[in-house]
Amino acid sequence: MLNFTLNIPTKIIFGKGEVSRTGEIVKEYGKKVLLVTGRTSTKKTGSLNKVTESLKEAGVDFVVFDQVEPNPRAETVDRGGQIAREEQCDLILALGGGSAMDASKAIATVAVSARPIHEYIRGNKTGLWKELLPIQEALPIITIPTLAATGSEANSNAVITNWEMKEKSGIAGPALFPRTAILDPELTYTVSASYTADGAVDMFTHLYEGYMTGDENANVQDEITEGLMRNAVKYAKTALNHPEDYNARAHLLWTSTLALIGIANAGRGGPFPVHQIEHTLSAHYDISHGRGLAILTPAYFRQIIKKDRPHRLARLGRQVFNITQEDDAAACDATIEALVSWFKDIGTYDTLKNVGVKKEDLKLMAEETIRVSGLGQDSIAATHPLTAEEVLRMYEEVFE
Amino acid sequence: MLNFTLNIPTKIIFGKGEVSRTGEIVKEYGKKVLLVTGRTSTKKTGSLNKVTESLKEAGVDFVVFDQVEPNPRAETVDRGGQIAREEQCDLILALGGGSAMDASKAIATVAVSARPIHEYIRGNKTGLWKELLPIQEALPIITIPTLAATGSEANSNAVITNWEMKEKSGIAGPALFPRTAILDPELTYTVSASYTADGAVDMFTHLYEGYMTGDENANVQDEITEGLMRNAVKYAKTALNHPEDYNARAHLLWTSTLALIGIANAGRGGPFPVHQIEHTLSAHYDISHGRGLAILTPAYFRQIIKKDRPHRLARLGRQVFNITQEDDAAACDATIEALVSWFKDIGTYDTLKNVGVKKEDLKLMAEETIRVSGLGQDSIAATHPLTAEEVLRMYEEVFE
């Protein structure tokens, strides 16, 4: 087990109806809040209304910034930050999926520093991020996820896309830990089948990445990770069949939060290469992050993990998909088959071509993945550094 | 899954050699520290020396209070609190097992309020605890466990014994969360076989109690709990055979912290009746808490759980001890057998008579358990409230 520091300053309020306490909770941090959300879904589903009602009841002043797009963009963040400054907001309240929550963290940063967020994004061409990360100053943030997926509600990371430069990468720092996360599973009843499934793949990927690439003497962490993966697999299916099954939605939401709260990876470390390879895809094509991960995972397992750490892939299969083969190589094949079959079952099995990716872009994207993510130098230290050629081969395998 | 609030404000610094950072960490919270520890073992093993060296190096002033006994007593706490006040200490640093850490939390309380700790202890005869709990004010606390057992290093609970009144019960409150816990597995190399085993039973009991008594729609929590139980069982044995096996000691220590950090029980709730039944034993006889739990657990499983929740006991057996019986009743019997066999294997299987308990005290202790713990009213709500007669029958079964 590696040495580690674990810090979970975000207070979590979880359960049925807890969204009605939003006003009372926000009030602890200030009088005026910038409510950051997407353009349509929180209006359609009524979540936004629930939140604004609670704010009004508590007498909290608010400004709604409802301009966050999927794969939130640097320019949107900068605009949000400016509004927070002009309106003299005391804190940022995120309502939505990973996009709204990540944008809120970035807006909270920009609102204090008045610097464009692009300067903070890891791997950007300016290189300024090397001085600016980790982020030490931001407005207080409160998160209300409406989708079980990214785990952004209770950690200090965010992913932002610079659409001009086709760069999608992370910002991070202690100031980005939300003060409180309000997790109300009922808010996720209205999530579409497609986003429910993509979200399950996102949390599953958060779990398997460190499990595959990190230190192997961390059995406590491995068993927690396996338990969470089993829950993601099990309850994704239940939630798809019964979108208003409270128990299934609660388990998915809590699994997604726990997957990235630090517990699973503390002492195991391990980079997240598949996330980084996917980020190039959604920086270029604006596809759902979870869908991109679902497309890439079989290629990553077949081309990299099956060779580098077959025993880990075999263990995942035995623990999560009840694979019984004793031989690791055979177990790896069976695991990949079981995984693909789960993806098909929940409707996330797909190809790059089908989500609109053009074949002629693959090579450029592979090269950009290495440049933006730094995967070449240090990122899969525990297995091996990836090359642009390897990334290209993965893209090619799942192209059509 | 029940609604819950999860709050883990304690920063955890875990790993080999981390104890050498004590001074630098303590310095963040003040200039003068009361170092609370036991009478002998941290001196013998050199832990105390490592800590004081680090404090000196960082230029932190310290006073050593080395009077904490096993099952720490109210009068010791009051004396420690007075010294902290007289010496104008800014914070409390605990070095030791659960006793030193629990005493530190109590001393941190008394140091601020100047009230005797007895007034705060849940269930005491004065009834003042009803107003004083949860504790909102205390000096900052930093913990350095030297034993993997109680999980006190990263939660806001402590157990204190009033020896005069034969009452052992809890104090709790947000002010008692340690600011930082320094978890250095190498400090536990010197723990005796007997304490290593008793500690493993303590963490195992922290895990099974809520699992047996809490809400049953909390599969994420159940799977995390089962994973932690498997690790306790596995690494206790390894650590007994190889006391300086870093990996085993690291896994035991991290399992003990995670068992009571809030993650396992959040959303499942569930009281800890066996802990409360044991507290009466150690309030009267000053025996090791873990040993008391090991003695009582088979009786609790046979007399209460096997009848109330056989499916839960069967599940524990299947998930933790590889029990294969499909019939729940048969699986319960096999689980209890496997448990007893594990206790025998690690040397914690014992009887009340053997640890010095007198038969004529059993009835009084059973009655006191109900009075002090409140087990009669609310404590096993999820199964059933216990009566003094039931507690007595458990004591009798494991008397000799």
From TrEMBL, chains A, B:
Domain of life of the source: Bacteria
Gene3D superfamilies in the cross-refs: 3.40.50.1970, Dehydroquinate synthase-like - alpha domain
Domain Alcohol dehydrogenase iron-type/glycerol dehydrogenase GldA: 9-185
SUPFAM superfamilies referenced in this protein's UniProt entry, alphabetically: Dehydroquinate synthase-like (SSF56796)
Keyword Oxidoreductase (UniProt): yes
Gene Ontology, cellular component aspect: cytosol
Keywords: Oxidoreductase
GO molecular function annotation: alcohol dehydrogenase (NADP+) activity; butanol dehydrogenase (NAD+) activity; metal ion binding; methylglyoxal reductase (NADPH) (acetol producing) activity
Domain named Fe-containing alcohol dehydrogenase-like C-terminal: residues: 196-396
Cited Pfam families: ADH_Fe_C (PF25137), Fe-ADH (PF00465)
PANTHER family with a match to the protein in the record: ALCOHOL DEHYDROGENASE YQHD
Protein name, UniProt field: Iron-containing alcohol dehydrogenase
Organism of this sequence: Niallia endozanthoxylica
